[in-house]
Amino acid sequence: MQAEIITIGDEILIGQIVDSNSAFISKELNKIGVAVYQITSVQDDRSHILDALEVAGKRSSIVILTGGLGPTKDDITKHTLCQFFNDELVQDDTVLQHIEEIFKKYISTPISDLNRKQALVPAKATVLHNANGTAPGLWMKKGKTAFISLPGVPFEMKNLMKNEVLPKIIKEYKRPHIFHKTIMTYGLGESAIANKIEEWENNLPSFIKFAYLPNLGRVRLRLTAKGEDREFLQATINIEVKKLYPLIGDIIVGEEEDESIENQVGKYLTQKQMTLATAESFTGGKIAQQITTIPGASSYFKGSVVSYATETKIKVLNVPEDLVKKHSVVSEEVAIAMAENVKKILGTDFSIATTGNAGPTKGDSDAEVGTTYIAISTPEHTFAQKFNMGNHRERIVQKSVNKAFELLLKEILKF
Amino acid sequence: MQAEIITIGDEILIGQIVDSNSAFISKELNKIGVAVYQITSVQDDRSHILDALEVAGKRSSIVILTGGLGPTKDDITKHTLCQFFNDELVQDDTVLQHIEEIFKKYISTPISDLNRKQALVPAKATVLHNANGTAPGLWMKKGKTAFISLPGVPFEMKNLMKNEVLPKIIKEYKRPHIFHKTIMTYGLGESAIANKIEEWENNLPSFIKFAYLPNLGRVRLRLTAKGEDREFLQATINIEVKKLYPLIGDIIVGEEEDESIENQVGKYLTQKQMTLATAESFTGGKIAQQITTIPGASSYFKGSVVSYATETKIKVLNVPEDLVKKHSVVSEEVAIAMAENVKKILGTDFSIATTGNAGPTKGDSDAEVGTTYIAISTPEHTFAQKFNMGNHRERIVQKSVNKAFELLLKEILKF
């Protein structure tokens, strides 16, 4: 049982947008036991799309296409599907009614013929209802292969996947189980980890695939098993994961991919009914932003003072001007004062503070680009650590954000 | 002159990571006149990689591979290249020396045999120096096609592209010019725009390709021309763009893709020597974070108070408790107070404030999920607007951030 994804649109091939749709579709298919063999991004070009459909259809039982269903001239997916299936476009009255309703409810401009044309669908297609947009999804069959065409707008595509495509696949296909488990580690590089677990890795059962995914100071370790018996797969993987703890337990911060570190911070703070605030300088609000992507964050996150300018640290965070003058704004002392003061001002149990220089120029301080201090304040104490995060602005920020969560989580777990 | 990209790694096909490398590579290739025909993501599987190399090599003169060059067992790209080229791995002493230096300088764990093995390269390959990592890039030729293998770590790949791959392509290949221009619009949907510019679009010269890229309240319009005479292409596109202004000038906020709206805000604030602060509730620091991705933001951005909890609005932003009680925390009055007070506290010329409910539950207020207020304060006045941003958490936040920048930019341009 194998699927392929074809994304249609020049914007991907000229690098104007990143293809995040395919990652979402792949993840959802994997969850229901459908492996994705290949992802192919092709141009808004009829013959290129036809080639891709032909090749994918020969290999895989499900081919999901995204993009090219909009109302404008550059959208050619429906016409190309008609050519591939030797079919013609006909009006679907239910879709037309839905389009008219959307315009009435949400859109201030009047409905036009271009919009009405979105109700044209290939005669042989099963229409999939797009609750969030005007371009319907399409499900067409050639031989044993299902070709499923979805709009490229992520919000519409995701909803169609969840409410139409996945239920239909589950109903119509027998699928094996695919079980992934991901272990998040912080603090060691991939080759150092590989050395520590070499024997364990060599002795893994052959139906378990193992991979290292390094990224900015964290390495994720992924185990994947595929087979008929879900419980057996899951049990075997859990046994193997347990064996990892005596080997690298000190660097493991969590299991399961969805358990991001900010998720864990949220989970434990909620459990312990404790609260958090941040005072961010060079991270510019990125820590707060990552915290608040988690639904329910308002129960433990009180807020952040993004004190990008030195004067903001003094005025809002009450960092003494003398302290800044004496130690420089990028210093352990200022980081600690920021953490303690934001905790006091917002009345929280924990706080994170960052001060540093993300470059490209030195800004308000004399610190070298890449020098950063991260301070953590807990109900019991406050400390700051100094890091050299390299010389690449984006990386300096993201590595520091990762490190801040890592330091914080360790402290939270002590309470 | 056409290229293809092959990304290697199960993590993409199971949806664990989004393939952002391909977008970067495509964009860089386009800039030097190399069109990307297709992007293909394949599994960590030898026969699948071989198939992809075979197919791409027949179509395109440049094939760029990313991923699978790490030190661990799941990394098989080098072995597969040896099979494809009927070649064998030999040690490259310069690479070995570089790996040893990296370990001495940056890595606390001792160097291991796994790390040293990264100095093994196919005998027929030209080695490309990876200044930021231990896995070298490889350039190999089969017939007329160059196969270029790069590590999957974005930071290492980007540096290799810029310093090794692009200069070598420029030196060795004659290339046409590809000229893109993107017009950013805010406030109208794609079909409404298409209706307004229908005649213009129908009369575009045939060598100009035109596309609509809708996304959360903004539509980007892209014109692309390809040919030998760069100046002619550029002039023709500029003439066509000029004709757009009488038709839709009221919704155009900028030209060129790299000119993001936060870039423009930064550019104009720097020019006018004016400053900005933000007070963010449900946007959770995302506005501050987008502002501070721009190098040099510290010259105009003083900071943000991320007042996620109502008490933070009261304590730090001095929003009167009575005002919150009387109008609710999600209200025009509170948004305006937040904007005025953060401007006063941080001493800036402009400010943005947001308050609203991004869901999934009602949080501190009685406002419906999706109800948001955005306030802008300028040296002359303060106003707030109410929006209904739908019911999807991420979208509510991103649409509001986009809208806030749009409202702010309009005000900045008046000074």
UniProtKB/TrEMBL annotation, chains A, B:
- Give the protein family: Belongs to the CinA family.
Q: Which domain of life is it from?
A: Bacteria
What organism does the UniProt record list as the source? Flagellimonas eckloniae
InterPro entries the record matches: CinA, CinA-like_C, CinA_C, CinA_KH, Competence-induced_CinA, MoaB/Mog-like_dom_sf, MoaB/Mog_dom
Per the UniProt entry, the signal peptide is none
Q: What is this protein called?
A: CinA-like protein
Q: Which residues form the MoaB/Mog domain?
A: 4-172
Q: Which CDD domains match?
A: cinA
Output the HAMAP family linked to this UniProt entry: CinA_B (MF_00226_B)
